From TrEMBL:
Its biological purpose: RNA N6-methyltransferase that methylates adenosine residues at the N(6) position of a subset of RNAs and is involved in S-adenosyl-L-methionine homeostasis by regulating expression of MAT2A transcripts. Able to N6-methylate a subset of mRNAs and U6 small nuclear RNAs (U6 snRNAs). In contrast to the METTL3-METTL14 heterodimer, only able to methylate a limited number of RNAs: requires both a 5'UACAGAGAA-3' nonamer sequence and a specific RNA structure.
Source species taxonomy: Eukaryota, Metazoa, Chordata, Craniata, Vertebrata
One GO BP: rRNA base methylation
Subcellular localization: Cytoplasm; Nucleus
Organism in which the protein naturally occurs: Phascolarctos cinereus (Koala)
InterPro entries per UniProt: METTL16/PsiM, METTL16/RlmF, SAM-dependent_MTases_sf
Principal location class: cytoplasm
Gene that produces this protein: METTL16
Official protein name in the record: U6 small nuclear RNA (adenine-(43)-N(6))-methyltransferase
Family per record: Belongs to the methyltransferase superfamily. METTL16/RlmF family.
Gene Ontology CC: cytoplasm; nucleus
Length: 553
């Protein structure tokens, strides 16, 4: 049985789920419904109505000493979920005060008498239990009598359309502490089967619907059913200290709270119950000023599980290779896991990721990272794209470059090459300009009244153009095509610097490098905060690949 850690703190099944194997060995009626797989694990098919009823009857007998007899057509509520409701009502009414009342009194609105049986057994509460049809009424009385609880539970039959008003006609002088209700969830059979009422993205129910027609369906569904209870409470008001009901749909909660607000009800609260994938919601309201209102659950219901760090392992043999690589390039001589940290710092510096060492334990090194921009995803592709763009820039002819390298005089016919890009300061009136037929004017000889074409462009475009012009000038000299990648990096760096430092960060994380007993090293990346955890995963993959490339190179 899947139980949720956010069940009520006093629920006995919160930390100790039922032992199916033990129950099967003790109760033959339950044993015939359990299944044992090849590994010896005992399980139960929650989509089998008879199996669910057998489990509920077994739990009521084993844990509460209750013997119940309910036909197959009737609803058997899941015990752990119903206990949540019982304990929440305990929170509503507070501890018992003998000076105020001899005993706690409650009203149960039609739920096969399960709540009265549990409430009377656990807390000694007195219940007025209402039933709407003859079958439920007869079985409820039988269950009360066979468990010797007739002095605490009174079962009455009420008309189909009535709820609280008719039940309290004969007891006009009694003040009840609370009422409980598990209303019919659905308006018709199609809705009960999930047609047009269940989000198609949700997984199918993990358990079967075991309710009878009068228990799971009512005109208007649970929304209209609870509104009828609200209208009854407006007439009864302080005849009950707390009115409550449990809801099967979260979408019913907001309109019911709005209805209570419109009617001016002073005290309103709600909560939610969890059991595995099953969720229920409860609503309560009161007309008393002296009642204590429990706080509703936090919006962040699910506690965040502690995230495991992202890790990769560097073998001891690879650590030695990294040490040799560091010695070959003249880096600071460090050994062990310190050499991994040194290489990580170098890679992070190349990526422009802010980092600093922080104190840590022995045989460990820690780096605190602040990533400002994504500089590691598709890094090689970005460089190739920049190189491809720069390859398209016009370049000096091979004869011209060879003549410059041999320091020979440039032939007359090679002095003006239409394929060679001239820098602005190399142009002259006797040479054609780079773009069009207009002569290029040297920057040092601009007339005072002339307008520089750069002034018509924005500062960003102007800076980019200056960078490209300087690159073109270098191509006209002795730069080889193999150095294009280095030049492309220069262009990217200048463009990045021209944009200014961003006023935000992508994420912050902590890198921890620690030594294992077998001299291997484990690199861990711990998430701290930021916009997207996937970006940290990508950076971890990049760092790991770079480390392994260093070893393999």
């Amino acid at each position: 049985m899947a139980l949720n850690k956010s069940m009520h703190a006093r629920n006995r099944y919160k930390d100790k789920p039922p032992d199916f194997a033990y129950l099967a060995s003790k109760y033959p009626d339950f044993k015939q419904h359990v299944q044992i797989n090849l590994t010896g694990r005992v399980s139960l098919n929650f989509k089998d109505p008879e199996a669910v009823r057998a489990l509920t009857c077994t739990l009521l007998k084993e844990d509460f000493g209750l013997s119940i007899d309910i036909p197959l057509e009737r609803l058997i509520p899941t015990v752990p979920l119903r206990l949540n409701y019982i304990h929440w009502v305990e929170d509503l009414i507070g501890p018992w005060d003998p000076a105020r009342s001899a005993l706690r009194r409650g009203i149960d609105i039609g739920a096969s008498c399960i709540y009265p049986l549990l409430g009377a057994t656990l807390n000694g509460w007195y219940f007025l239990a209402t039933e709407v049809d003859d079958m439920c009424f007869n079985y409820a009385k039988k269950n009360v009598e066979q468990n010797n609880l007739s002095d605490l539970i009174k079962v009455v039959k009420v008309p189909q359309k009535t709820l609280l008003m008719d039940a309290l006609k004969e007891e006009s002088e009694i003040i009840y502490d609370f009422c409980m209700c598990n209303p019919p969830f659905f308006a018709n059979q199609l809705e009960a089967k999930g047609v047009n009422s269940r989000n198609p993205r949700r997984p199918p129910p993990s358990s079967v619907n075991t309710g009878g027609i009068t228990e799971i369906m009512a005109e208007g569904g649970e929304l209209e059913f609870v509104k009828r209870i609200i209208h009854d409470s407006l007439q009864l008001k302080k005849r009950l200290r707390w009115y409550s009901c449990m809801l099967g749909k979260k979408c019913s909660l907001a309109p019911l709270k709005e209805e209570l607000r419109i009617q001016g009800v002073p005290k309103v609260t709600h909560t939610e119950f969890c059991q595995g994938r099953t969720m229920r919601w409860a609503l309560a309201w009161s007309f008393y000023d002296d009642v204590t209102v429990p706080s509703p659950p936090s919006k962040r219901r699910k506690l965040e599980k502690p995230r495991k760090p992202i890790t990769f392992v560097v073998l001891a043999a690879n650590i030695k290779e990294l040490f040799l690589k560091a010695s070959a390039v003249g880096s600071e001589t460090v050994e062990g896991i310190a050499v991994i940290t040194t290489w990580l710092e170098k890679i992070l510096t190349d990526l422009k990721v802010q980092h600093k060492r922080v104190p840590c334990g022995k045989e460990e090194f820690s780096l605190f990272l602040t990533a400002i921009e994504n500089s590691w995803v598709h890094l090689r592709r970005k460089k190739r794209d920049r190189v491809r763009q720069l390859r398209e820039v016009p370049r000096a002819s091979e004869d011209f470059i060879q003549a410059m390298e041999e320091e020979k005089p440039v032939p007359k016919e090679m002095e003006i090459n239409p394929d060679c890009t001239k820098c602005p300061d190399e142009s002259s009136p006797s040479r054609p300009a780079m773009y069009g037929a207009e002569p290029a004017v040297s920057e040092s000889h601009h007339p005072d009244n002339s307008q520089d074409p750069m002034e018509e462009e924005g500062p960003e475009k102007k800076g980019r153009t200056e960078v490209l012009e300087s690159v073109r000038g270098s191509f006209c000299a002795t730069e080889e095509l193999d150095s294009l990648e280095e030049v492309a990096n220069t262009v990217a760096e200048r463009e990045k610097n021209s944009q200014g430092a961003p006023g935000h960060y992508l994420f912050k994380c902590l890198i921890n490098v620690r030594k294992e007993a077998n001299d291997d090293a484990v690199v861990e990346m711990h998430w701290v905060e930021g916009q997207n955890r996937d970006l940290m995963n990508q950076l971890c993959t990049y760092l790991r690949n770079q480390i392994f490339r260093l070893v393999a190179s």
